[in-house]
Specification:
Shape of chain A: globular
Distance between the termini of chain B: 28 Å
CATH class of the largest domain in chain B: Alpha Beta
Largest interface: A-B, 27 and 30 residues
Order of helices and strands of chain B: HEEEEHHHEEEEEEHHEHEHHEHEHHHEH
Number of strands of chain B: 15
CATH topology of the largest domain in chain A: Heat Shock Protein 90
Oligomer: heterodimer
Structural class of chain A: alpha+beta
Number of strands of chain A: 18
Number of domains of chain A: 4
Number of helices of chain B: 14
Chain lengths: 570, 373
């Protein structure tokens, strides 16, 4: 019984509070399921904040739809509808024309945490952990008390409809009310109710998310209906289905201890040495010899499945002591200059656009990545505030997926903001109608948290973003300078026409001879001949300076991001 | 030198030169060339000083003003408009100031007049100077008047044809006020009779009044002029004209760099007006005082020195840097004393002991020939 002397109500003997034994404490220790853990920590999945939560739901489903369509070789058609069913209570319906989920997999795909086909693959993919869709199911359950409603068909004429929920304690899916009927439909449709969420039209809203998704996926047709019934269509602007990224072998320098540990424990190889040469990139027998020299006490002939975590850690350290050939970037699939251009032009109708899809680079010595960037100026570019003011906007993407949240801590934001925009003719970034687009492609994008909305500041990544953006910024600068030049020339021309007229008027008065119109005609001819010559000379000079600058390699980039290559193994 | 001009002047040299300038431009345009004219380079690089007299003049370097040129078109157009206006002033037989010219231009040209060029404060106007230098004439010849400054008294009769009337001015009968020197002492001005042995130029009006009261010019038979500080164009021109009649010119200023510079501007001309030195500079002029050496000569002055101002020191240093001044050892000595002692003496100090001493001082200096070049 709790009392003033014994606030915790512990068993007392002789009036003194007893110290609990370790056993007693641990009696109460229960195993929590993964699902339980995430229920209590849903902000880790992106369900923090009312607007953000709703956008995260849309993000998870749309990502899955895009991935599924691409894997099946289908040009995606996705429609998203959000309806208000109460105060901060919405029904979200998302449907796609993808391959659908076979009936027997529906439960596990949408009702089980950490399951899914994506988890163990080392390749470029939008969502990295396969938590997403089930997280939404749980979120729906927790806030509305209702399961999600699913409708799916693989196009075989049979359509399946059911409800799905997650058993929080056991992490098992619960599929109920399954119906099967005939019909001509292929794809997946999910309807889920969420409470404690809010829809608005801010920069963090589902609308903005879908707009950006459309930008990064010009091959997708996206339709959105908001709670007020307003329809927004992001049309498909490219018939080119992106090539699937290839699964690649990880590079020794791109592995962390636990990843290496997992790989070895799951490896079919009989020896660690053969595991290394067959399952990791760039590991040759001679490299294994070098590793043996660095780690003489380690038994490279042991079975990889018997390896300890400590062994993995030692190996990772040893990798760092050996020179490697840089990893190949062949598995990566950037969006590409042409597609980015089509996309941004269609959505922003900018006055000026410059795009750069850069060649691959490597961070940490072992992880290849590609930065794609673009600058859009004028037209609909830039962020618009409520008041109608226009300012600079940064659109961040990783593997074609928009990063809407946690902008402040993101390496992309930091890199773009660290640029001296004044040098590029952009006065104040925050008041210029400019959109900077940055997409980072990698099999392993470094994030700063489980929310996956913010890129970690790996030095090679930050540098590459900066150089890429400076590249397109230079293009913009040239355009703006040209614009200014054109305006100046136009003003000068107007002025000189006036001077010609005035001179033609006064000269006859001075000279007692000469006619205004004749003088005017002749002077106009003379002046514009000169103008043409002057402007051509100016343009020539400007061209020469530009060529010189390009030959010098622009801003002195190129030195960072280069790794020690060991050429002999190539 | 301009001919005697009549009002409604359509035949004077100035008029003809303006028309000719215009004709040449029309011809250039008709032959598909950019209208242009040549004018001497007026920048310091082309200002030279005569080795004998020290007078400043422009070298032979010339530059072209032309219309078909991105940075010159506007100025050229304005110059032609100015020339046309000046021609019309001559035709009308009327005079006006630069400010009046500005408003005449603004009326016909409107926005395209460079307001900064026609500043009320400054009489320096590069476009008008272009015309003066190119045509070898003064703006006064084009009926442009400047602010007058300067007073004269003495035995001098002048016939003044102006505004359609002719008046006779007797500079010996102007009482305490003296005759104000006009901005144009050439066109329409006839110096009928001058009876004097020399010309005395006194820096300050107060000293001129003192000497005028003492009838100095009558007793000593001279022309008494005060420029009232830095000499205006009209005053410089008058001094030059009097020197042309072989009258010695003696200058009497404060003992400070500022006063001395007034002397040098009269003597050699100024750099800004180097292109008009022929008409405005009087290298024959000599300097009476006050000098720092006078302190030795006249004991009472020792008590009457005051501190030299910052501008005096600066001016002294500048003057030492001009080769036409630096050649004269005596002047360098005087300037060095100013720089060392940082003292000066005003002309007015000569009245310290006795009000009438000023006249005695001047006569003594002239008679003894104790003057600086």
């Amino acid at each position: 019984m709790a009392s003033k002397e014994n606030p915790e109500g512990m068993n007392t003997e002789n009036g003194k509070a007893a110290i609990k034994t370790a056993e007693e404490i641990f009696e109460e220790f229960k195993e929590h399921s993964v699902a339980e853990f995430f229920t209590k920590n849903k902000q880790m999945l992106g369900f923090s904040g009312k607007v953000r939560s709703l956008t995260t739901v849309v993000h998870e489903y749309v990502t899955n739809s895009l991935d599924a369509c691409e894997e099946a070789g289908i040009l995606p058609e996705i429609s998203v509808k959000i309806t208000a069913v109460g105060e901060e209570h919405y029904l979200v319906k998302i449907s796609d024309n993808g391959p659908g989920i076979p009936s027997e997999n529906i439960g596990r795909a949408l009702g089980m945490m950490l399951s899914g086909t994506k988890f163990h693959r080392y390749m470029q993919q939008r969502g990295q952990q396969g938590i997403g869709a089930t997280g939404c199911t749980m979120f729906a359950q927790l806030t509305s008390g209702k399961p999600i409603h699913v409708r799916s068909s693989t196009g075989n004429g049979k359509i399946y409809e059911c409800n799905v929920s997650v058993n929080i304690k056991t992490n098992a899916p619960h599929v109920s009310d399954m119906q099967e009927y005939e019909g001509d439909f292929r794809g997946l449709e999910v309807m889920a109710e969420f409470a404690d969420v809010k829809y608005d039209r801010s920069e963090y809203s589902p609308l903005e998310y879908l707009k950006r998704t459309a930008i990064a996926n010009p091959h997708a047709e996206i339709m959105f209906i908001d709670p007020e019934g307003r329809k927004v269509r992001f049309p498909r602007v490219s018939e080119m289905l992106p090539e699937r990224p290839k699964e690649v072998q990880p590079h020794p320098l791109g592995l962390e201890s636990h990843t290496l540990y997992e790989l070895m424990r799951a490896s079919p190889a009989r020896k660690v040495s053969s595991f290394l040469t067959t399952e990791l990139a760039r590991v040759t027998p001679s490299k294994v010899d070098e590793l043996k020299a660095v780690l003489p006490q380690f038994d490279f002939d042991m079975n990889p499945r018997d390896v300890t975590w400590e062994d993995a850690r030692r190996l990772v350290a040893a990798f760092k002591k050996v020179k490697w050939v840089a990893p190949s970037a062949e598995g990566l699939r950037p969006i590409g200059n042409e597609q980015i251009e089509i996309s941004l032009r269609s959505l922003l109708s900018p006055e000026y656009l410059s795009v750069r899809s850069r060649p691959p680079k490597v961070y940490k010595g072992g992880v290849p990545f590609i930065v794609e960037t673009a600058i859009a100026y004028g037209g609909k570019a830039g962020a618009r505030t409520e008041a109608g003011a226009v300012g600079g906007e940064i659109m961040r993407f990783s593997n074609r997926s928009p990063l809407l949240f946690d902008a402040g801590g993101c390496a992309i934001t930091k890199a773009v903001k660290s640029i001296e925009w004044k040098r590029y003719g952009v006065g104040e970034f925050d008041t210029t109608p400019i959109t900077v687009f940055v997409n980072i492609i990698s099999a392993f994008v470094p994030y700063t948290g489980a929310g996956k909305q913010s890129v970690a500041a790996e030095p090679e990544v930050v540098d590459e973003i900066k150089f890429a953006v400076m590249d397109v910024a230079r293009d913009l600068q040239r355009y703006l300078a040209g614009k200014v030049r054109e305006e100046t020339r136009a003003t000068k021309r107007k002025a000189i026409i006036r001077y010609i007229e005035l001179l033609s008027e006064h000269l006859p008065l001075l000279a007692n001879t000469g006619k205004k119109e004749e003088l005017q005609q002749k002077l106009t001819f003379l002046v514009f001949e000169k103008f043409k010559a002057d402007e051509a000379a100016e343009d020539q000079k400007e061209k020469k300076t530009r060529v010189l600058m390009e030959e010098e390699g622009g801003e002195g980039e190129g030195e960072s991001g280069k790794i020690e290559f060991d050429e002999e193994d190539m | 030198m301009a001919k005697e001009a009549k009002s409604d002047d359509k035949t004077s040299l100035a008029y003809n030169k303006l028309v000719e300038l215009g004709r040449e431009m029309v011809q250039e345009i008709e032959t598909n060339e950019s209208p242009s004219f040549l004018t001497p380079v007026r920048s310091r690089s082309n200002v030279k000083s005569d080795p004998e007299t020290g007078a400043l003049y422009l070298g032979d370097a010339k530059e072209t003003r032309t219309f078909v040129h991105v940075s010159q078109a506007k100025k050229f157009m304005q110059t032609v408009a100015i020339a046309a206006k000046l021609k019309s002033f001559l035709e009308q037989g009327l005079h006006t100031s630069i400010r009046g010219l500005y408003y005449q231009l603004k009326f016909t040209i409107g926005e395209d007049v460079d307001e900064e060029l026609f500043s009320e404060q400054s009489e320096s106007n590069p476009l008008i100077e272009d015309l003066e230098a190119a045509l070898d004439l003064k703006r006064e010849d084009f009926n442009l008047s400047t602010d007058r400054k300067g007073v004269v008294a003495g035995n001098m009769i002048i016939k003044d044809k102006f505004g359609g009337e002719e008046s006779t001015i007797d500079a010996s009968k102007q009482g305490r006020s003296g005759w104000m020197i006009p901005s144009d002492v050439d066109n329409g001005m006839e110096f009928v009779d001058i009876d004097a042995d020399y010309v005395l130029v006194v820096e300050k009006d107060a000293l001129w009044q003192r000497l005028n009261e003492d009838k100095f010019w009558k007793k000593n038979n001279c022309i008494l002029i005060t420029p009232k500080g830095q000499a205006s164009r009209g005053t410089r021109r008058l001094i030059r004209k009097l020197a042309d009649r072989k009258l010695p010119i003696y200058v009497f200023t404060d003992c400070d760099a500022w006063g001395w510079y007034i002397y040098w501007a009269i003597k050699t001309g100024s750099m800004n007006l180097a292109y008009l030195s022929k008409s405005l500079a009087t290298p024959e002029a000599r300097f009476i005082g006050v000098t720092m050496s006078d302190i030795e000569r006249y004991d009472f002055l020792k008590k009457l020195t005051i501190n030299a101002k910052e501008v005096d020191i600066k001016r002294a240093e500048e003057m030492k840097s001009y080769p036409w001044i630096a050649r004269h050892k005596q002047w360098v000595q005087e300037l060095d004393i100013v720089l060392k002692t940082k003292k000066k003496i005003e002309q007015d100090a000569l009245q310290g002991q006795k009000l009438t001493f000023v006249g005695e001082y001047v006569r003594e200096k002239i008679e003894s020939g104790a003057m600086l070049p």
